[in-house]
Design a protein that fits this description.
single chain, about 500 residues, alpha/beta, FAD/NAD(P)-binding domain, Enolase-like, domain 1, 3 domains, seven-stranded mixed sheet, five-stranded parallel sheet, globular, binds flavin-adenine dinucleotide
């Protein structure tokens, strides 16, 4: 029997779900909006600022669910995990045995880390506040950790860890390939090796993540071991990532994957310790909690392993009995109205995968900014569909735009900043001042199709416009990045 009904139900108290609820409630349609989330804390966007047409910055706060109810009297929040979707009956079932009927449903259940070895007590994934606290706790007594993965989380973690040796295993020939090319990686190398370099002590990233006082107290109430909302920008700020060694040392193993994880040193295999400078005595070799064998033959003993090898969308509760079309990456496939293949069921944020390819300069990446944009746009689509009105694809999906901070440097990513999906006919224009700035333009047929700006370049707005208007810049050649030309003034 249905316990409750609501015209709109949103699943998940992360940034996508909360933004969706706020947007649905803001329209004063008089309809009930129900949020189902297993966690007593939700993520809220504050101090939102539109930096340019597509670039945005904001602060993210973790708040008690009660604050969401203040948005509108029509908003209800129920702390419960969804265990099943009955798309035909327009119902969701929760772990506590209740059923909730909906008119339209938006799934914003996020994603969980893909763990290298699930259940292994020496392998840690980073996703929510709980997992970061566990990482800190373990670091306190650690001399060496192995970090596996080459995305943003691995990058930040390797940079932040103090007084501990870090073996960083990545499958690519250079680090940070999700965000930058090998030349940019070279630019960051001094900051990586010595985390007290100028870049490292720069101001905090613009989009912030804060935790409300008392949040730890409610943490223990998390239902059934289910993950809370993903962390986000600045998750490592003010957290002491301090180990038990007297120095910090980073050693990168390129182009390799983890082949084996075991609690005993693999027999007959020589440990590779030469590059990391630790003592080589047998006693040290045998004293590690866990050993990692890499595909390049290297074996490292360590205190624990951080698995930062990407995320898997949380789709499981919604699949059985429903004809949900899934994307190759495991996300719920959504059309350009954020609709899944089940009638009246929408999805937004990390759980979904977009199927549209309309705007050549935009692509999906599981980022905080996109979770917010998708949550807001899904709500607009839901409201428009409810009254049979058309809705255009939001302009934020015209251009991939992201501001972040790596190693203390401001980093702006625009369009196909790494030449993603482009043919061999694109060329790169580069300008680099070590320790100060790294500027890269991706050009195709004389037009800018992507850009990466590291440092305080102030070039983002000009090149955002040049990517959007696709002006033919062939005549300018390499002069486009001439530091003596005030490019902003020139194209104003
Ligand atoms: P989530 O934040 O994962 O929220 C999902 C919500 O759904 C949670 O509340 C969860 O408890 C709930 N839920 C799950 N299953 C169910 C269920 N069955 N029933 C009910 N509720 C359910 N992005 C950036 O842009 N910049 C960064 O620098 C950055 N750094 C990051 C660092 C870390 C360590 C991590 C883990 C992520 C980082 N991200 C970053 C990514 C960003 O945090 C995510 O893209 C974003 O938070 C996704 O938001 P979401 O609302 O889709 O999902």
């Amino acid at each position: 029997m249905t316990s409750e009904t609501a015209k709109y139900i949103v699943v998940g108290g992360g940034i996508a779900g909360v933004t969706c609820v706020e947007q649905l409630a803001s329209q004063n349609t008089g309809d009930d909006v129900l949020l189902l989330t297993p966690y007593p804390l939700i993520k809220a966007v504050t101090n939102f600022r539109q930096v340019s047409r597509t670039l945005e910055e904001f602060v993210v706060e973790e708040r008690n669910v009660e604050t969401l109810k203040r948005v509108s009297p029509r908003v209800r929040v129920i702390q419960a995990a969804v265990t099943k979707l009955d798309g035909e009956a327009h119902e969701v079932h929760t772990a506590d045995g209740r059923r909730f009927g909906y008119g339209k449903l938006c799934i914003c259940s996020g994603a969980t880390p893909k763990l290298l070895a699930k259940g292994n007590p020496f392998v840690l994934g980073i996703r929510d506040t709980d997992s970061v606290q566990e990482l800190q706790k373990r670091l306190v007594g650690s001399r060496r950790i192995v970090v596996v993965g080459n995305g943003g989380i691995a990058l930040e973690l390797v940079h932040e860890v103090r007084d501990c040796e870090v073996i960083w295993a990545i499958k690519d020939p250079s680090f940070g390939t999700t965000f930058f090319d090998s030349a940019a990686a070279e630019f960051f190398l001094p900051s990586l090796r010595n985390s007290s370099s100028p870049g490292a002590s720069g101001p905090s990233r613009r989009t912030k993540y804060t935790t409300s006082p008392g949040s730890t107290a409610v943490m223990g109430k998390l239902a059934g071991g289910m993950a809370g909302s993903a962390l986000g920008p600045d998750w490592q700020e003010n957290l002491h990532m301090q180990g038990a060694n007297d120095t910090r040392r980073v050693h990168i193993e390129f182009e390799c994957e983890v082949e084996q994880i075991c609690e005993q040193k693999p027999a007959g295999i020589a440990m590779r310790e030469r590059d990391v400078g630790v003592q080589k005595q047998q006693a040290v070799e045998d004293s590690w909690s866990v050993y990692v064998k890499l595909s390049n033959g290297a074996v490292y003993g360590c205190d624990f392993i951080v698995s930062a090898t990407g995320v898997r969308p949380c789709t499981q509760p919604f699949l059985e009995g429903n004809e949900l079309i899934m994307a190759e990456d495991g996300g719920l496939l959504v059309d350009d109205h954020m609709k899944t293949s089940v009638p009246d069921v929408y999805a937004a944020g990390d759980v979904c995968s977009v199927s549209w390819t309309r705007d050549v300069h935009w692509f999906q990446m599981r980022l905080w900014t996109q979770a917010r944009q998708m949550g807001a746009y899904a709500a607009r689509c839901i409201l428009a569909d409810s009254v049979g009105e058309p809705v255009d694809l939001d302009f934020c999906f015209e251009l991939f735009a992201h501001i972040t901070r790596f190693f203390g440097y401001k980093v702006v990513l625009l369009g196909r900043y790494n030449g993603q999906g482009l043919g061999s006919d694109c060329e790169l224009l580069l300008r680099c001042t070590p320790g100060v700035e790294y500027v890269k333009l991706v050009m195709q047929c004389g037009r800018v199709v992507g850009a990466l700006f590291v440092g305080d370049t102030d070039l983002e707005e000009t090149f955002e416009n040049l990517i959007l208007n696709q002006m033919d810049l062939s005549a300018y050649g390499e002069g486009l990045l001439n530091p003596c030309v005030d490019i902003e003034d020139y194209f104003d």
